[in-house]
Amino acid sequence: MKDHPPPDTPQRCGLVAIVGKPNVGKSTLLNALVGQKISITSRKAQTTRHRITGVRTEGVTQFVFVDTPGFQTKHSSALNRSLNKTVTGVISDVDVVLFVVEAGNFAVADAKVLSLLKPGIPALLVANKLDQVNRRAELAPWLQEMQQRHEFAELIPLSAKAPKDVEHLLKVCEKYLPEQPWWYGADELTDRSEKFLASEMVREKLFRFTGDELPYTSTVIIDKFEEEPSPKHGRLVKIAATIVVERDGHKAMVIGDGGERLKRIGTEARMELEKLMEAKVFLQLWVKVRSGWADDEARVRSFGYE
Fold first, then answer.
1. 130 assigned ligand-binding residue
2. Is 22 marked as binding a ligand?
3. Does residue 69 have a known ligand-binding role?
4. Which residue ranges of the chain lie beneath pLDDT 70?
5. Is 21 labelled as part of a ligand binding site?
6. What is the pLDDT of residue 293?
7. Nearest 5°: CA angle at 139, between 19 and 44?
């Protein structure tokens, strides 16, 4: 990337959508591209629920990345309809699309996302998880096959965990961004509030510590987010949050023996938030049962989904 552009070089700025089926590594890629954790990651599919914008400014170029929920084809609850609307809304309004798949794999769910890509918007095939491919020689014919499925502007095999690969992807994306003034300050990382990031961080730990036992319809609501100056810490943030689950059995699972699991979720989320916010954080968590919320349009909206 350009370190010291000439003073008269015009600025570039544009939107880059990151799309793909659930669990192909979109959030990990977004965090790597931004250079800071702003999107939650988990082995559980469907972790990302909202359109999350990440900003990276390098030289004269500002990349505005949009991470979308994985396009969901299996279920059609009110929550999933809302998630899919988010995906289709994003990809019709960007300068370039990163279509993320697992290197060497292409399933029906990938094909459904691919069918959403709009003609006229350049799409880059990002073949992620390259580090997990044993036979690299088999990748070339697979890439050719992918190019026949869609006219990709570029084919980029990479691992989102390899900094060199991520730098290369940035350089490629830069070519597709228009010359125009930046939309954000040079040091801004996301358009999402700290309150939003707090709910996402708790949700990540919730899924991480419950694994596949807990349905992905569980969510987190922030009840209180207060900041006060602190002579000792400089900045003190008090957060109270409710984990919403659909059944009493799920509630017991989240709380764990003697409250142990809930305590662990809270501790891990608090530590990450302190790093992210550069503040002392007090975090209180409760668990409530709201059965059927993911099928209730009004409740899905009231919980902050579009």
1. yes
2. yes
3. yes
4. 1-7, 36-52, 67-92, 190-193, 212-217, 292-306
5. yes
6. 55
7. 40
Question: For 114, phi and psi rounded to 5 degrees?
Answer: -60, -35
Q: Could you tell me the two tokens for 78?
A: 């009110």
259 assigned to a ligand binding site: no
Residue 128 annotated in ligand binding: yes
Amino acid code (one letter) for 44:
K
Q: From 3.30.70.2860, 3.30.300.20, 2.70.50.60, 3.40.50.1260, which CATH number describes the 194-302 domain?
A: 3.30.300.20
**Rounded-to-5 percentages of helix, strand, coil across the chain:** 40, 25, 35
The residues, any chain, with a CB within 8 Å of residue 128's CB and separated by 6 or more, are 24, 25, 29, 100, 101, 102, 103, 158, 159, 160
Sheet holding 234-245, edge to edge: 219-230, 234-245, 280-289
List all residues 6 or more positions away from 16 whose beta carbon is below 8 Å from its beta carbon: 63, 64, 65, 66, 94, 95, 96, 97, 98, 173, 176, 177
CATH number of 12-174: 3.40.50.300
Report d(CA 180, CA 177) in Å as an integer: 9
* 20 labelled ligand-binding: yes
pTM above threshold 0.70: no
pLDDT for 19: 87
Task: Quote the radius of gyration of the chain (alpha carbons, Å).
Answer: 20
- Check the annotation: does 23 bind a ligand: yes
70 is in an annotated binding site: yes
Q: CA 162, CA 128: separation in Å to the nearest integer?
A: 11
67 is an annotated ligand-binding site residue: yes
304 is in an annotated binding site: no
Q: Are 52 and 190 in contact (CB under 8 A)?
A: yes
Residue 105 CA to residue 111 CA, distance in Å, equals 11
74 is in an annotated binding site: no
**What residue spans define the domains of the chain?**
12-174, 194-302
Side-chain half-sphere of 68: how many Cα atoms within 13 Å? 29
